[in-house]
Amino acid sequence: MGIECRVLMTRMSAPIGNYVGNSLEILESINCLKGKGPSDLQTLLELIGGHLLQMTHKVSSVNEGRKRMVESLTNGTALEKFKQMLVELSVNESIAHELCYGNTTAVLPMAKYKIEIKSLTSGYVNNINGMTIAKVCNKLGAGRQFSNQAIDPAVGIRLLVKKGNYVEIDTVSMILYHNETDLNESYLILLQQSIELVNEIKEPEDILLGVIDYSL
């Protein structure tokens, strides 16, 4: 078939970015398209985009492609292209404009309640269990177990700490956004336990583990 393929193996020992949940991830995506996303997510975008530009012969090297990505994410062209895509997909132009250039949260479903999750002890963040966080969000409506279940796009998590950060006891490590009038406290315990703290900091790890090229 002659299709050139490339696999980027990236580290997934902790969530990438700061948000989990449908509306919150859109909010974070808009921030990334403005060049204001969290550093780990911005790095991943630059890597993927840089490789794609090099593979399609738009640039001569991955590094040049990464520079082009940074330019498009900071000069507004990426965000404007996203707005054009929304309009082409039948999103009202005024809503697309507000989402991209106005009050983003005004056009996204947002949760009625939020609760701070605090650290149980002090130490360096060694691991953030993304699966536990995903399961809690799923239980609160961010995902579905069966095809006929409704999704609550407002449910989600904002992470306030990253792997390698030092946190004191009772530091707010994340914020849970939900619409439950009677929230099950077991979810809060699970979220507290999802962050593993250690006494000694470890060397920062590169997000890119390896690259595999092949053809179909």
TrEMBL record:
InterPro entries linked: Nuc_phospho_transferase, PYNP-like_C_sf, PYNP_C, Thymidine/pyrmidine_PPase
SUPFAM superfamilies: Nucleoside phosphorylase/phosphoribosyltransferase catalytic domain, Pyrimidine nucleoside phosphorylase C-terminal domain
Keyword list, A-Z: Glycosyltransferase, Transferase
Alphabetized Gene3D superfamilies for the sequence: Nucleoside phosphorylase/phosphoribosyltransferase catalytic domain, Pyrimidine nucleoside phosphorylase-like, C-terminal domain
Domain Pyrimidine nucleoside phosphorylase C-terminal: 124-198
Coiled-coil residue spans: none
Single GO molecular function: pentosyltransferase activity
GO terms for biological process, alphabetical: pyrimidine nucleobase metabolic process; pyrimidine nucleoside metabolic process
GO cellular component assignments: cytosol
Record protein name field: Thymidine phosphorylase
Source organism per UniProt: Melanaphis sacchari
